[in-house]
Amino acid sequence: MIKIWDVVAGKPVRTFRGAGDKRIFRLAVSPDRTKLVSRHSIGPIRVWDLATGAEIRKLEPLPFLFADMALMPDGKAVAFSGPAGKIHLVNIETGATSHILEGHPETATAIAVTADGATLVSSGKDRTLKVWDLK
After folding, report:
1. Gap between the Cα atoms of 112 and 28, Å rounded
2. Which residues touch 127 (CB under 8 Å, ≥6 apart)?
3. Domain spans of the chain?
């Protein structure tokens, strides 16, 4: 279960149901604060409406365990970093992979996207940073 808390009041203000008691491995919030994406120990990747807590859709699990994820600023795609140094850009509406960025010789461990969506930065297990032009 995922809960949004009012830190001043010290109380939960919203609960995201449907994930059950599965362990949560990753969370990502869209820059416009409208969507939340969650990856759980098993099952689909879930996309939530951040304002209501309603589940918007489920994406089929990726065929690999990913290390990190980041939502694109427009909220239409999510980037997943994973094994073999690949970063997958996946359309949230269709679940289809639109691009695969390759460059790290080992696992891409962390990713971040600039506010304008033009650049993705990744770090790798090989101790390198890559800067990707997405436009």
Report:
1. 11
2. none
3. 2-133
Contact in structure between 68 and 58 (CB atoms under 8 Å): no
* Main-chain dihedrals φ then ψ at residue 85, nearest 5 degrees: 70, 15
- Please give the Cα distance from 62 to 95 (Å, whole number): 10
* Per-residue tokens: 70: 């980041």
Structure confidence by residue, pLDDT tens digits, 84-123? 889 999 998 888 999 999 999 998 999 999 999 999 999 9
Q: What's the pTM?
A: 0.82
d(CA 17, CA 76): 22
Name the DSSP class of 124: E
Which CATH code, of 3.30.365.10, 2.130.10.10, 3.40.1010.10, 1.10.3720.10, is assigned to 2-133? 2.130.10.10
